[in-house]
Amino acid sequence: MPKLAVIYKVGVYGALTIVPYNDTGKYMIKFKGAATAIVPIPRPENSEVNMQSSRYALREKLLAAKNLDEVWT
Q1: Phi, psi of 48, deg, nearest 5
Q2: Cβ atoms of residues 66 and 44 within 8 Å
Q3: Would residue 21 be called left, alpha or beta, if left means φ above 0 and alpha means ψ between -120 and 50 degrees?
Q4: Are the C-beta atoms of residues 7 and 16 closer than 8 Å to each other?
Q5: What is the pLDDT, as a whole number, of residue 1?
């Protein structure tokens, strides 16, 4: 089971439903289909990327990147 899921929703999206989880104050995310796993993207030792907070990345760049510097440059 993955420890981390990355989900980005813009506007109304039919493949994603967010529903309350019992009476816990938490929410459950239900997907229409299975999630797509991506391979880990290495961070070079001399990386220019600062990973101190969450960052938005385009799926196309994530899939094409050979290292993290290629995702945000």
Answers
A1: -90, -10
A2: no
A3: beta
A4: yes
A5: 47
C-alpha torsion 45→46→48→54, nearest 10: 10
State which amino acid sits at residue 52.
Q
Residue 34 CA, distance from chain mean position: 14
Token pair for residue 15? 């493949």
Q: Per-residue pLDDT tens for 46-65?
A: 988 887 877 888 889 999 99
> Which residue has tokens 């989900």?
7
Other beta carbons within 10 Å of 71: 18
- Cα–Cα distance, 16 to 9 (Å, whole number): 8
DSSP 20: E
Residues facing residue 54 across a β-bridge: none
Task: Tell me how far apart the alpha carbons of residues 48 and 36 are, in angstroms, rounded to a whole number.
Answer: 28
